[in-house]
Amino acid sequence: MIGHEVTQMATQHDILATLDERRLELGLSVANLARHAGLGTATVQRALRGKGTASFAAICAMAHVIGMDIDIVRERKVSGVRARQAEKKAERLVQLTRGNAALENSFLTEKEATQFRRGAAQRLLRGSNYALWA
Q1: What are phi and psi of 44, to 5 degrees?
Q2: Contact 41, 34 (CB under 8 A)
Q3: Dihedral Cα 60, 66, 67, 70, nearest 10 deg
Q4: Which end of the chain is flanked by fewer CB atoms within 10 Å, N or C?
Q5: How high is the pLDDT of residue 102?
Q6: Does 126 have pLDDT greater than 60?
Q7: Are the C-beta atoms of 23 and 48 separated by less than 8 Å?
């Protein structure tokens, strides 16, 4: 998020709420924030009140006016991102398998599910990017 180290992804609502808090701390009106950011007052007002969306450029312009930066930080190495995606997809495959097994009056033990999940994640990491991200 803005000016903080976060452990989860901030939503646009979170970012705009932080900008609005800072605007209020500075005693800056919405109209003056809009003017200094080169934006329309109604646009800024809607964005800060959560009544619309704002472009990334607009958010950056508002942040700049109030002395805040928006940074994009690589949180993980590529291998870590791929491993996380493989685990997520493997978990979805386990859930689908459990659903199918239930329809057939069968079940998947936790040990079998763990083995299936690990094997699926490994196969996804060895396979194509398409299979990993599709």
Answers
A1: -65, -45
A2: yes
A3: -30
A4: C
A5: 77
A6: yes
A7: yes
Domain 12-65, second-level architecture: Orthogonal Bundle (1.10)
What tokens appear for 60 in the block? 């950056």
pTM above 0.85, yes or no: no
Q: How far apart are CA 15 and CA 65, in angstroms?
A: 15
46, 47, 51, 56: CA torsion to nearest 10: 140
In 3D, which of 35, 125, 50, 51 has the Cα closest to residue 81?
125
DSSP E strand boundaries for 6-89: none
Query: Tens digits of per-residue pLDDT, 46-105?
Result: 999 988 788 999 999 999 999 998 887 776 788 888 999 999 999 999 999 888 877 777
d(CA 87, CA 118): 8
Domain range summary for the chain, segments of one domain joined by +: 12-65, 78-133
